[in-house]
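note to self — DONT lose this again. spent like an hour looking for the file last time. sequence + predicted structure for the chain T wanted, 298 res
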Amino acid sequence: MPELPANARYTWGGDEFLFVEIDEAMSLAANFKAMSLARLLTETRPHGVIDICPSNASLLIRFDPDLLAPEELERAVRSHEQTLIESSAPTLETRVIEVPVWYQDPFTTEVQARFREGFHQQPTGTDIDYAAAVNGLASVDEFIRRHHESPWIVSMVGFVAGLPFLFQLVQQEHQLEVPKYLSPRTDTPALTVGHGGCFAAIYSVRGAGGYQMFGIAAAPIYQPAQVLPDFHQFMVLFKPGDIVKFIPVSGQRYQEIQNEVGKGTFRYRQTPFTFDLEAALADPDSYNQTILEALHGA
C-alpha cells in the first residue's frame, strides 16, 4: 500500500483562508492527497466553504468565518486527511482525455524567433531543439515521442483561467525536464503546449509566458461562450486529476479540427477512469498501458 504524506501543515491566511501544505516537494502521492482532500471536501462541503483550490502539493480553502468557525473547518479537514491516510486502497475517479497537438507548428515557431537573443539560453535553433539537447536525446523526433507516448496528470489548474499544469506519469529519472526561458516573453500563442522544469502546460489564452514552446493544441481548453459540447457544463475543460494523452497531428489534421471547432461539432476523445495510486507507483510503465488501453476502448 502506498504511503500518503502525513502531518500536513495547517496555517491561516487572514480571516477567510485555510492553507493545508501537504508536502514541500511535488510528488504524485502528495498531489493525489491534495486532489483527494479537495474531492472529499466538495462532497461534504461544510456550510460556509466558498472555494476549494487544490494545488501541486497543497490545498487552499476559502470560507466565510461568519458562517463557519475556523476550528470547525480545520477539524473537518483533519478528519478527511486521517481517512485518506488510513485508506487501504487510495483511488480517484477521474477521466482520460486525448489532446491533439501540432508539434513544431508555425505559430509558436514564429514567436520563438522573435524572443531569442536575451530571452533564451540558446540564441539559435528552436525550443524543442534545446529541450532535446538538455535531456540528452539524439533528436527532436525522440523528444516528441517521449513527450506524447506517456500520459500526464493534471496536477492543478490556474495561474490564468483554465490553464492546466501537467506532471508526467513516468519514473522520476525518465521525466522530461527543461528550464524556463531566461527572461519571460511578452507573447505566447493561445493553446501553446509549453514546458518549464518538470511540468507541461497548455496556455489557455494568448499572453506573456516563460515556458519552452513545443507545439500548439488543436482545440480550445477554455471557452467562456460554452459553445462546444465539452464545455456545456463548465467553461474550463480540465479538472485536477484528469489524465491527458497528447497525440501528434499534422498541419492538415490541425486545420480539420479547427473547422470542426468552428462548426461547433468537435468533441474531445475521453473516457472515465479510476486512478489507482498504488498500481501507478508500483509499476508506472505497466499502469500507463492500462490508462492508454482505457482510452483506446472509449
